Amino acid sequence: MITPEPLTVGLDIGGTKILGVALTDDAEVVAEVRRDSPEGFGRVLDVSSEMISEIEREAGRALGAVGVGIAGLVDAEGALRYGPNVPDVVLAPVRAALAGRTGLPVVVDNDANVAAWGEAALGAAAGVDDMLLVTLGTGIGGGMVLGGRLYRGANGFSGEIGHFTVEREGPMCACGERGHWEAIASGSALGRMARDEVSAGRGARMLAAAEGGAAGVDGRSAVAAASEGDPEALALLRRYSENVALGLAGLANILDPERIVIAGGLVSMGDLLFVPLREAFSEHLEGVDYRPPIPIVPAVLGERAGAMGAALLARDLV
């Protein structure tokens, strides 16, 4: 009788939920568990350990290793130095603590890094050695696969692509600095732009699509109005797409990726985002007429990308 290879588990620990999957050696998901994210490192550790045990029971197979993606700055020892989106979790020895709880080898990385690895191995950038993943959500995150390897930087902190300055006197970023790309191109930025339109006496369709009056106007309001053909909302989304393209072109000029994958909640905008984004990107990319095109494509693994990527990283520990 041939004993099957042990499964690897991937956990994607975010500010609102923890998603865990078990992955076979041929990348089949055979178990999936999710929980709301608790506050504090102790509770995150408790819930993560419980989820791993539940995944093992659901899969009915032995586990070989655990991979973890977590939002924030993760060092080479697998400790979360700083995670503003994970409540009350800083200077947390995630790898060591979870290995002690489970008795399994554990690898820990940034959540966007593991999502990039998942999309590079199994998703929208499969077969591509040089790719950039950009997550457009409340903020902006990123992961890079360069030369077929996940790029982490000197300390493991690479990929914080939302935090370079594009407007010196621009809007305040959530990190406390002014004019970062995230401050003009995230989902939060799109909501602010929509509210500014309404405050200026424009955007009647966006206001009508919002819940709770002017204070409830957000990016979803703009998308809803644009989907109905509202010219003011469509113009707003073109300006927003220009902001996204500005940062993407700068990163592409630096990294020269073969493909750019867009993940995160704003992917659901579809052509309302991707059509103007691709047009504006070409306008900002250096030497666009003299270089191979760089496709900008939506991620395909959905919310599983981080957990699957983390499980794939854990294969190296088995």
Number of strands: 13
Give the rounded overall mean pLDDT. 93
Can you tell me the CATH superfamily of the largest domain? Answer: ATPase, nucleotide binding domain
From the 3D coordinates, which CATH architecture of the largest domain would you assign?
2-Layer Sandwich
Structural class: alpha/beta
What is the CATH topology classification name of the largest domain? Nucleotidyltransferase, domain 5
- What sort of overall outline do the alpha carbons produce when their principal axes are compared? globular
**Strand numbers in spatial order across the main sheet:** 3-2-1-4-8
Tally of domains:
2
CATH class of the largest domain: Alpha Beta
Major β-sheet profile: 5 strands, mixed
Instruction: Give the SSE order as H and E letters.
Output: EEEHEEEEHEHEEEHHHHHEHEH
Tally of contiguous helical segments: 10
Termini separation: 21 Å
Please report which band the strand proportion falls in: under 5%, 5-15%, 15-25%, 25-35%, 35-45% or over 45%: 15-25%
Task: Specify Rg, calculated over alpha carbons.
Answer: 20 Å
Portion of residues in helices? 25-40%
Instruction: Point out poorly predicted stretches.
Output: none
Note down, in words, how this protein is organized.
- It is a single chain.
- By secondary structure, the chain is α/β, with parallel strands linked by helices.
- It has two domains: 7-120 and 303-317, Nucleotidyltransferase, domain 5 (2-Layer Sandwich), CATH 3.30.420; 127-299, Nucleotidyltransferase, domain 5, CATH 3.30.420.
- It has ten helices and 13 strands.
- The strands form three sheets. The protein has a five-stranded mixed β-sheet. It has a five-stranded mixed β-sheet with strand order 11-10-9-12-13, sandwiched between helices.
- Strand 9 and strand 10 form a beta hairpin.
- Helix 5 crosses helix 7 and helix 8 crosses helix 9 (271-284).
